[in-house]
Specification:
With 818 residues, the protein is of the alpha/beta class. The chain is built from 34 helices and 21 strands. Helix 3 packs antiparallel against helix 4, helix 22 crosses helix 23 and helix 27 crosses helix 29. GO terms for molecular function: ATP binding; nucleic acid binding.
Length: 818
């Protein structure tokens, strides 16, 4: 919505009759026949203004809102049917026909129109006019770079598959996804499409294949390019708006595109996102040309409510920018329970506060029915898989689960699956883990925290509610879900926003948001546009300058030893660990690597991996370490912990590891060493050390003040924190030891995979966990898994019989990849 449209709609709302009727329509007050005619006439006028000048799309949007709201409220679907036919919203028209929602019988013209609509059928769903045009344009676009910008749930997955088929002559295809959850989901979609290609999801799965589809994160894709004389012919960048960020993963994503282009100037790139305003903002340099295919029409129009801290409720109409007060008497929790839908998503940013909320909320909701014992079975499974004191188990009785990034991945993924599967699981309390790629059947959203949520973030979050495949499901009328219910629930504990969220809500008035470019490697980056506060600007300038210099450096080569070491550190993602700008550091680290390589470190072969990391990468360079998680390796207690972690963690079950961690915590309490590092997300107390960061922040927990149940749940969180630290950070140093020939292949395998069994390692690379592989080995099933002609995993009939005999968690894990 541009400024002209905002001004016009604000002025129209000053007309008393329109103002009163749009208010009544918005808050569901009964309209008279005359008022119905009036507001529908206004919708027709808005449509006519749009058709005179299609740049003013908000006029079409308000017309659609009026007609949609009217038709759903009064079950008079003729206006909605006519609108849908005229503007190509064919899925709506098809449902109106299928469920006999028109009072009059279809005319001959209507029957002919139904035949026309059926031409927009794609697999098991109907496309909109704009959707089909954009898809066909993309499939026939020969540009080297093309973007597909469309609201959430507009057929992105099937589009990728169609595009791969269209570009079958391209040998090496990469689909770059931002998260592990999306990686697994995309893998399953590609696998089920029978594209007759090798599919790899780990860089070490590559075996010189002539034609393959790699479903990778940017980290794995870069490692593939680094280790092999290879490049991608075709790249799909999913959630491409992530390129705009300033975080290290955004930089890695732009690095991948730049490096692949250097290796293969003929690369083709498809950018996919619901959140990009201008595709030119994706450019790395001015010479690029990006052809844009965009779907601007969104079939959903959210109904937005605000609960304010003093127990007042308002409903917001974004078109006229008005808040209408509603009657309500109760607190935050009673508001949520009174407005709940069938499947509810409660958004809270902090993992710690998510757990705080569910402990309060559980006392305000009733026990749910469990007629088929599915919830009871899940409780028993979690008790066996995780621990009987896992917070989640009691919540399930009340139809509630919580999800966040400090939960073990496999547990989080299994709970997501169960939330979809079990109807009486009513509430999911989660944070941003749900924003990218997790498709849950949510019909009502409660936002309890708006910190760092921009208009784009909010739009993406709201887009998770009532996905189109749940609305147009083929067997029941769900058109009311085109008006998803979104509740902003303010409170002092979870939000601290002066009692209301009005300004955040007003950001939704416009559904067009400027791209905020914080990645200095992009051509459109301009520090002035970021409007950084004066006192922070100098530090920001320095940070962005270093990022740009580092990216330029790794695209060059040279014989200078410090320069080569710096390139290696940057390329490995270690520039955020060390002060790589310091030449003394680079010289000292280079000397330490050479000392180890020359065999001049006493008892080097007998040292553990952790001791080798400490000796080379920490001991004498600790003054140059910027990352406080790494700096903990200067502490002997921390090194002992990671030795234990690497020795037993990968071979034990999750429950065994939780018990070991619990016992370790209890031992520390007995020894009088109860302060334990948990990081900023769970820390409660400060500890006086020589480390400024730890002195100034609450990053420790005093275990002596915790009950056994609390310690168990801290152990669950700690395992996830350390799993992420080991997998995404510490392993970079294991790789460095291997790359500099300081450890053997066997040492590398044990540290990274937990085994030297080559067959098991190959299965781990396909996504299976070591604990599952061990179970398959115990059950004599590994011989029933082999490779097909494309070197993809396949199973024989005996394994399928075995899989059918499995239930619950192990069946879920098998179905992910086999």
């Amino acid at each position: 919505m541009n400024s002209t449209e905002k001004t016009t709609l604000t002025n129209i709302n000053k007309i008393e009759e329109f103002r009163e009727i749009i208010k009544k329509l918005t808050i569901n007050e009964q309209l008279t026949s005359e008022e119905k005619s009036y507001i529908l006439g206004c919708a027709i006028l808005f449509m006519k203004h749009y058709e005179l000048d299609r740049r003013y799309k908000s006029y079409l949007d308000i017309a659609y809102y009026i007609i949609l709201k009217y038709s759903i409220t009064y079950e008079d679907y003729l206006p909605l049917y006519d609108f849908s036919i005229n503007f190509g919203y064919y899925p709506i028209a098809k449902d109106i026909i299928n469920y006999n929602l028109l009072e009059e019988k279809l005319s001959l013209n209507d029957s002919l129109m139904e035949v026309k609509i059926d031409k927009y059928k794609k697999q098991n769903y109907i496309e909109t006019l704009q959707q089909k045009k954009a898809r066909n344009s993309l499939l026939n676009d020969n540009s080297q770079e093309v973007s597909y910008i469309a609201p959430t749930s507009f057929g992105k997955s099937s589009l990728i598959i169609d595009h791969i088929i269209q570009n079958n002559s391209r040998n090496n295809i990469g689909i770059i996804v931002p998260t592990k959850s999306l990686l697994v989901q995309t893998y399953r979609n590609i696998r089920q499409s029978n594209l007759n290609r090798r599919i790899i999801i780990h860089d070490e799965m590559y075996q010189g294949d002539e034609k393959f589809i790699a479903i990778f994160t940017q980290e794995r894709a870069l490692r593939l390019l680094d280790k092999h004389d290879i490049s991608f012919d075709l790249l799909y960048i999913d959630e491409a708006h992530n390129l705009f960020g300033k975080d290290p993963r955004s930089i890695l994503l732009s690095r991948l595109i730049r490096r692949n282009r250097n290796l293969n100037p003929n690369q083709k790139i498809v950018y996919l996102s619901p959140l990009i305003s201008e595709s030119d903002n994706l450019k790395l340099d001015k010479q690029q040309e990006i052809s844009e295919q965009k779907i601007s029409n969104n079939l959903k129009e959210p109904e937005i409510f605000e609960y304010r801290s003093w127990n007042e409720i308002f409903k917001y109409n974004r078109f006229v920018n008005a808040f209408y007060k509603l009657d309500f008497n109760g607190d935050m929790f009673s508001y949520i329970t009174s407005q709940k839908g069938q499947k509810n998503f409660i958004y809270i940013r902090s993992p710690k506060k998510i757990e705080m909320f569910v402990k309060e909320f559980i006392n305000r909701v009733d026990i749910v029915d469990d007629p088929d014992s599915s919830i009871q079975n899940l409780k028993e499974e979690l008790s066996d898989l995780v621990h009987k004191d896992f917070y989640m188990i009691n919540l399930l009785t009340k139809g509630m689960v919580y999800l966040h990034g400090k939960m073990p991945d496999i547990v989080k993924e299994y709970l997501e699956f169960k939330f979809k599967e079990i109807n009486n699981l009513k509430y999911v309390v989660a944070n941003s883990v749900i924003l990218e790629g997790i498709n849950l059947p949510i019909d009502t959203l409660f936002i309890l925290n708006t910190h760092s949520l921009t208009g784009k973030n909010l739009t993406n979050l709201i887009g998770r509610v009532n996905r189109l495949n749940n609305i147009f499901n083929g067997y029941s009328n769900q058109l009311h879900k085109l008006l998803p219910q979104v509740h902003f629930v303010n409170n002092d504990i979870y939000n601290r926003a002066n009692g209301k969220m009005e300004n955040k809500i007003k950001a939704l008035r416009s559904n067009i948001f400027d791209d905020r470019i914080e990645n200095p490697t992009l051509d459109s980056f301009n520090l002035e546009n970021l409007k950084i506060e004066k006192q922070s600007k100098q530090a920001a300038e320095e940070r962005f300058r270093l990022i740009k210099e580092n990216e330029d450096l790794i695209m060059t080569s040279g014989n200078d030893k410090n320069g080569e070491l710096k390139r290696y550190l940057i390329n490995s993602g270690l520039e955020n660990v060390y002060d790589t700008t310091n030449s003394q550091f680079l010289t000292r680290l280079h000397d330490q690597i050479q000392t180890a390589a020359n065999g001049n470190i006493e008892n080097w072969p007998e040292l553990t991996i952790i001791d080798k990391i400490y000796t080379v990468f920490v001991k004498d360079v600790s003054n140059y370490i910027k990352d406080y998680a790494f700096l903990r390796l200067t502490n002997e207690h921390a090194r002992k912990y990671y030795k234990m972690y690497l020795q037993v963690n990968r071979t034990n079950s999750l429950k065994e590891n939780i018990t070991l961690t619990f016992n370790y915590f209890k031992k520390r309490v007995r020894e009088g060493n109860s302060l334990f590092y948990m990081g900023a997300s769970y820390g409660e107390v400060r500890r006086q050390t020589g480390n400024y960061d730890e002195n100034s922040k609450e990053v420790y927990v005093d275990l002596s003040r915790k009950s056994d149940s609390e310690i168990i749940n801290l152990a669950i969180v700690k395992l996830k924190i350390e799993d992420d630290f080991v997998n995404y950070h510490l392993n970079k140093l294991v790789v460095a030891l291997y790359d500099f020939s300081l450890i053997t292949q066997d040492e590398y395998n044990l540290a990274v995979y937990g085994t030297n069994d080559e067959n098991k390692i190959n299965l781990i690379k396909t996504g299976l966990s070591l604990s599952l592989i061990t179970k398959l080995q115990k059950d004599n099933q590994l011989n029933n898994i082999s490779l097909d002609s494309n070197n993809n995993l396949k199973t024989n009939p005996a394994f399928e019989i075995y899989k059918k005999s499995m239930q619950g968690f192990y069946r879920f894990e098998l179905d992910k990849f086999l």
